[in-house]
C-alpha cells in the first residue's frame, strides 16, 4: 500500500503468501492473479479479506473503474464480463482473438497481437484503431492515455488511441 503516489510502500495484505502477477484495483475492490497459487483472488474491502474466483484461463483482466463488481477478462480469444464481482462470467460482444483488455474511465481498450480496439462502453461497438502493432504483449490505460508494448517498443497515445508516439525502441 502507498499513500504517497508510490514513493514508499508498506506491506498491507497477504505479504509473503501470494505472488500477484497481475493486480487490478477500482475503489475498494481488488482482483489479482495469484501465480504461486494458480488462482484469481478478489477482495471487496481493500484487501482485508480475500476469496478465490472460478474463472477460465485468462490472458487479460480489468475492472470497471466507475462501477464496483464489473470485471472484464480475455480468455481463449473471447471477452468475458462479470457484473457480480467475479462470481459468474459470460461472453460479451468483442472482436475475435482478443487477449489484452484495459478499462479506463473513458474507454475500454482491447488488443490482439496487431490491432487495438476501443469502445466507450460495454454493449457499444468496438472500433479498430489505425495504429498497427507487432506482437503487442502489454497494455495500460488511464482516461484517454493508452500505452502499448510490442516488439518495436513502447507506444503512447494521449488521445484515446487516435495517434501514437513510439517512445523507445527495443533492441
Please give a quick description of this structure.
The protein is mainly beta. It contains no helices and 16 strands.
Give a description of the structure.
With 171 residues, the chain is mainly beta. It has 2 domains: 1-53, no CATH class; 57-169, 7 Propeller (Methylamine Dehydrogenase, Chain H). It is built from no helices and 16 strands. The chain has strands at 20-26, 29-34, 39-43, 51-53, 60-63, 71-75, 78-82, 90-92, 100-103, 108-111, 115-119, 127-132, 138-142, 145-150, 153-157, 165-169. It has a 4-stranded antiparallel beta sheet with strand order 1-2-3-4, with no helix packed on it. Strands 5-6-7-8 form a 4-stranded antiparallel beta sheet, with no helix packed on it. Strand 5 (60-63) and strand 6 form a beta hairpin. The termini are far apart. The mean pLDDT is 88.
Topology summary:
Blueprint: E1 20-26, E2 29-34, E3 39-43, E4 51-53, E5 60-63, E6 71-75, E7 78-82, E8 90-92, E9 100-103, E10 108-111, E11 115-119, E12 127-132, E13 138-142, E14 145-150, E15 153-157, E16 165-169
Antiparallel strand pairs: 1-2, 2-3, 3-4, 5-6, 6-7, 7-8, 9-10, 10-11, 11-12, 13-14, 14-15, 15-16
